[in-house]
Design brief:
The protein is an alpha+beta fold and 203 residues long. 29% of the residues lie in helices and 24% in strands. It contains 5 helices and 8 strands, in the order E-H-E-H-E-E-H-E-E-E-E-H-H. The protein has helices spanning 12-22, 48-60, 98-108, 175-181, 183-198, and strands spanning 4-7, 28-31, 67-77, 83-84, 118-128, 134-145, 161-163, 168-169.
Length: 203
């Protein structure tokens, strides 16, 4: 049976990015929802890598013949001691809209000079293979927190994450440009190389 890649997320925006970057593997790529997995996963790791592995292992226990990938990503703001960090999705409450989350962060940095607004997006991707082995990669994109939200192309914290060398936020970039630069894009491409090597004979 040809292997499938199951990504432990229900986020459709994320699945679009994932499919775009991993399409050349020639494998079916499904979200956990599309694969019929409906489980509660407690992300109680202390790092992005630990949380990504927890998610991947939880789904791999249900789908033992598939390659399961999961990511954990977030925004680290140096001025706020790297907050929200691993709590990025849960910051200010899990059901709080990102418009509100972004507004809170902008308010907290009000009056903070440009050089102290440094930040990065971090993404760790973990893969659990049918033989039980695990591979993890971590990538980042450096930038700073903008003075105001700008752009509609991204999601999450994209509208407030400004990349100086491009003169815009990640929400103002085209999907292709963002995938080229983003933490998740870099991590998925690094994982794609591991997948090619690990299961080369099957692809």
């Amino acid at each position: 049976m040809k292997k499938r890649i199951i990504f432990a997320t229900g986020n459709e925006n994320k699945m679009k990015e994932i499919r775009m970057i991993l399409k050349d593997l020639g494998l079916e790529i499904l979200s956990m929802k599309e694969a019929g997995v409906d489980i509660d996963i407690v992300e109680d790791g202390m790092t992005f890598e630990e949380n990504a592995e927890i998610k991947a292992r939880s789904v791999a226990r249900v789908l033992t013949n598939d390659i399961v990938l999961a990511d954990d990503s977030g925004l680290e703001i140096d001025y706020l001691d790297k907050a929200p960090g691993i709590y990025s999705a849960r910051f200010a409450g899990e059901d709080t809209s990102y418009d509100i989350k972004n507004r809170i962060l902008l308010d907290r940095l009000e009056g903070v000079p440009e050089e102290e607004r440094t930040a990065r997006f971090v993404c760790a991707v973990a893969a659990v293979f049918p033989d039980g082995t695990v591979s993890t990669v971590r990538k980042t994109i450096e930038g700073r927190i903008a003075e105001e939200s700008a752009g509609y192309n991204g999601f999450g914290y994209d509208p407030i994450f400004y990349v100086p060398e491009y003169g815009c936020t990640t929400a103002q970039m085209s999907p292709e440009q963002k995938n080229e630069l983003s933490h998740r894009g870099k991590a998925l491409r690094a994982m794609r190389e591991i997948l090619k090597e690990k299961i080369g004979g099957d692809i």
